[in-house]
Fold these 3 entries.
Entry 1:
Amino acid sequence: MTRVLPSTLTFACTGSRPEPYAAGPSLELDLRIVDGTGRRVHAIALRVQVRIDPRRRAHTPDEAARLTGLFGEPARWTETLNPLQLATVPVMVTSFTGETTVPVAVPLSYDLDVACHRYLSALDAGVIPLVLLFSGTLFYAGDDGVQVGLVSWSEEAAHDLPVTVWRGAMDAHFPGSGWVRLRRDTLDRLAAYRAEHALSWDAAVTSLLGGAP
């Protein structure tokens, strides 16, 4: 017989690093999961929502200047400095008893139209305050066979991600560079200008901005 029971799991994020083998920029977070009942957990189908909470860190004057386009003037930040959605990722946790630590792969964007990347690219140093929220289903051994539990929506974990770790993940794929989305006709005109003057993309944009190619 299978019954649905509330979850007794607790979560903590214990570490972070650039994910070295990802096809694109990605972080790897260490997620520790504890079940204090002593039962055998067969598996957890977990969904992890990763948010940035900018209210949990101070920002330098230079950072604040870069963030006015995202949050407005600092005088308004008590109203506008809201959490930003970084990613939502599925994690399949295999069997364990007591506690286990699993990697959580978090893909990153380099698109300057994405709010979370605009925020991250404005930071010089320090940490990025992350909040991990959880949902999902666990399957564990009970007196009547396999039992089913729901991961509580109230469970969350905080993690201070060093800015250097985020930057390392980005530089592993796009060192010293970034991406800007352009309309197709604008891109066609830029490509034609680049070809006409035998320039790289970077040199073509620099030339159009009034600098030497």
Entry 2:
Amino acid sequence: MQPLNVLYISIEGNTRNFVKNLTRYAAEQHAQNPDLPELNAKEVSEQTDFDDLDKDYFCFVPTYLDGGDGVNSGVKELMTNVCGEYIAYHQNASHLIGVVGSGNRNFNLQYCLTARRYAYMFKAPFIADYELRGVPADEVRIYDALVKRAEEVASAE
């Protein structure tokens, strides 16, 4: 299986930490079973030059919002806009095969709202979520979800 490609943005370091741990976990799985994919991750920031993405990828995005509940009183996304702009660049959205969200469950309806909005906007499934920096069980669960989704996409081609 080809490596799993991940595009992510990290504001406070939580997503970066999680993706780093997930990358390590994927490498361990690949070492034990070469049929399981490794993970290639690319972090996006305000300084990132946009490239054309020509391979399937997953997006990992945290939620940072300014007011509103995203349902009844609107929403204004903060700090992660460049990730959405990168996905929207040229044909990049056509290669997005899944979105993973993170956030703080204390924010109720806003929990993972940015990821759910990206999934809707870019017509890609919302496949998993984790809170803050995640825990080791999240690495296992999310890796399995990425592998499953990549297999679904490969079998549909």
Entry 3:
Amino acid sequence: MARTDGGPGKGKPVGASSGPTEKSQKDILNALPLAMLVVDEADGIGFANAAAESLFGLGEDSLCRMTIADLFGGTDNAITPLLSRIRAGSGVVVARELSLTGHLAGMLADVQAAHIADRAGAVLLVFEERRLPGVLQRRSNLEGAARTVFGLSGMLAHEIKNPLSGIRGAAQLLEKQSSGSGKDMAILIREEVDRIHRLVDQLENFTDVRPFTRRPVNIHTILSHVRDVACSGFAKHIRIVEHYDPSLPPVFGERDRLVQIFLNLVKNAAEAVPEKGGEIHLVTAYRHGLRMPMAEGGIVDLPVEVTVADNGPGINADLKEHIFEPFVTDREGGSGLGLAMVAKLVAELGGIVELDAGMEKQVAGGGGARFTLLFAAATGAEGEDNA
């Protein structure tokens, strides 16, 4: 094996006619899927590859004007001790599931640190986000809960609807033939039968397993339609604020399912916000990095992020881990099926929905609830039809 003189980018193999240029080395580093930073002896950022730009949401020029303290929110961060260990003589340090701060606040990541030969005090940092395992487990749980409701709803629809029609007919006859308290009781029976009928109708939605075709869909068109429906009805007196990324690619999804997903979320938000000063925020953004294995095999990127946030009282802390399960609700009179339906439809589209735990990140002021959804983008020929 040929010997090299100098550190990365400083020399070339002895006896070789030529070595990689600095530009080709950067091209190689930019092609890597993991975020990489080169930190100099003064803790300044000397280089950031393309994956690091995506992870931190900053360009290389901006990153290279920052220090580790700037990037991670002060000197009391999880990265500085790794730098100290490397400079004290450790060859390579690997830290699993570090809780990061600053520009990556709330993220868990595996971080590898290594000394760069012939560059005094320089350290290479490699970041790998650890969000995926937890997301996979949660999605698996949601899909399992939805499958359980498939069977339950099918049984209820078949066994309950027929006798309900008979009970309602009898109540209508009693209502016509009675007066006073007897008529009131007949009306009460009819109204309660209607309420049960509506509940069974909701349950029937879970049994809809008809195949559907995914195609490019403009998510902003979906959200605008949902806003118009909400503003003309259940959210007539609520302020709906839109923050959209105009460069967002189309979602690879199905229109009716997307409309139902966001109508459910906006309706829940509308019921949670205060009568005066209620706000619902709809936000879209492009996020790099999260990739999900598909049931049919292969890996898919989920870069299209949509957030639905409100300034209501938020979700009861005891329910946050179970909020997408059927019949779980903290709202009086709620059926607990709206968010379960959202989870089912998002899973069918191959996406992810999460209730953010960190309410300090709330888009709309106050405590509130903040739901984040991630979808696959239509690419190549898929996206051309949605120009």
